Amino acid sequence: MAVANGATFTDPGATAKAGSTDVPVTTSGTVNTSEDGVYTLTYTAVNVDGFSVTGFRTVAVYTTAEDAIANDFSGTYLRPATGVNVYWEKIAPGVYIVTNPGGAAAGTGLTVVAFNSSGTNIHVPSQRSSDGNTSSTSDEVYTVGSPSTYTWRFLNPGYGTGLRTFTKL
Fold first, then answer.
1. pTM, full prediction
2. 84 and 103 part of one domain
């Protein structure tokens, strides 16, 4: 989910059932709508037999400057070094879900939230990524062109820290 900085966030919550019986769900985590970032809410339910299930919701709080609102960086990008694609999906002005942000053959299901808060500046703030690790980026540069390209260091324990280059297809 994405919510603009300063807006009201209403947690839609989660439901759990054991057969047709509702199971109480506890929620942990908070969303601060006055501070840009990526927040994780954790939902846990335990049935009468003691079996538990946990689910997560990622909430991006964003501020996007006028010079970035019209940008649309969504699409498919190729990492030439590996021949593997990365996918950007725009979910709000300046907010993207990025699938396989490292451009690695082993990380094709990994997702993170990336921001384009002004101009062509991009970044992945520190967050719990879909693999359960903490991910972020550094040394980010997005260049609009034909084709557009970007580079960044994808920081996640399962990846090296080398500069990665991507070209929009």
1. 0.92
2. yes
